[in-house]
Structure formats: C-alpha cells, structure tokens
Amino acid sequence: MLETALLEMFETAGAVLSVLAAHGIGLAVTDLRMSYRAAARFRDPIVGRIRLDHVGGTRIRTRGSLHRQEPDGGTTELVEGDVVLCAVENATGRPAKLPAFVRDVWQGLVTDE
Asked: By the number of CB atoms within 10 A of the CB, which of 16, 66, 68, 101 ranks highest?
C-alpha cells in the first residue's frame, strides 16, 4: 500500500508510470523495511502518507506510513516504512537512468523532513 501511495503521488505530479513505460523503463522495489504498529481489519479506511527523501539518477528513496481513519476523526498509525525503488529497463531488468524530465518532477517533490 505504501508503493500505491507513492505511485498516486507521482500521478498527481504528472510523472506517471505510463511515461516511464513509453521510455522502456519500469520501477522495481529493491529495499523494503517496515515497522508494524497496529493491526488493520478488512474494510478499515486506510490513509497513506508518503514523502520522497531522495531522487537520484536511477534510485528513489521514500518514507511513508499507513493510518486507519477512526470514527472520531483521528487516525491510528498502522505501519511505517522505507521503500527504495530502482528504475529498470523493462526488456532486461537492468538498472536504467530516469529520464531527466521525470527526475526533475520527482526531485521537486523531495521533502526536507
């Protein structure tokens, strides 16, 4: 779900996977570290919060969390984690450079938190 929140952020910024695919590039998770805080249940309303920590030539480092929306309006943190993605050539699976315009858009999303 953290990866989905990240992809939604990319879509909102206008740098979607279809743009990468047109360049023969995909994204692969290369590192995932999670800390579980509380259990979710089927049909719980879940909110994702994600931020970009680093966008390099081929790698993207992110940090995010998932929260359950509570009936009283508050939230309960369910999970927190780090996700590292690598740009790869779709044909070979080898690392690939992110197109400059995509990298520029994503670097504009990096936060200093």
From this structure: 66
| SS3 call for 36 | strand
User: Is residue 93 a contact partner of residue 1, using CB atoms and an 8 Å limit?
Assistant: no
- pLDDT of residue 14 exceeding 90, the answer is no
Q: What's the one-letter identity of residue 26?
A: G
What is the number of other CB atoms lying within 10 angstroms of the CB of residue 29?
A: 11
Q: pTM of the entire structure?
A: 0.83
Domain boundaries, the chain: 2-107
DSSP H or E stretch at residue 2: helix 2-13
Find residue 87's DSSP bridge partners. 27
pLDDT averaged over every residue in the chain = 90
Mean predicted confidence (pLDDT) in 35-44? 95
Tokens of 82: 């780090």
Rounded-to-integer distance, Cα 57 and Cα 111, Å: 17
